[in-house]
Amino acid sequence: MFACNYLLSGVEEDTTVVAAADAQNYAQKLGIAHGMAVQELGWDEDTADELRASVEDAIGSELLDEDTDEVIDVVLLWWRDGDGDLVDELMDAIGPLAEDGVVWVLTPKTGQPGHVDPSEIAESAPTAGLTSTTPVSLGTWTGTKLMQPKTPSKQR
Questions:
Q1: So what's the architecture of 36-147 in CATH?
Q2: Which tens digit of pLDDT belongs to each residue from 98-109?
């Protein structure tokens, strides 16, 4: 947090600004850049609006929903304990995914309602043909990046 003095129209105002470094870096942490097609699945009233806004600002458009016909670069899958079968959801998510696209499984952190044990993601990913990486902290949510295995290039 830092304080700023502003002189606007001859009136000095003291304003306190809270640096929202995490919010500004959410899209960067997720590897999301301008022009990417980002699909959001599993939205509910508990999702992190600041994360969603960060991604929309970065891509320069709104998040796509499950009805899109576009090829997807990144899927943001909000997932909570009790949401159903993660393998089934991942299989649906990878359908429109670009060859080098990724799925971010976003789960509530430990101690938050709906927390998902990381082992559930680790066990579900390979069944859906995906590999997982180390989770990243995203406010009250945790993001686990799932990728499609790289296919070896053909030798000539």
A1: 3-Layer(aba) Sandwich (3.40)
A2: 999 999 999 999
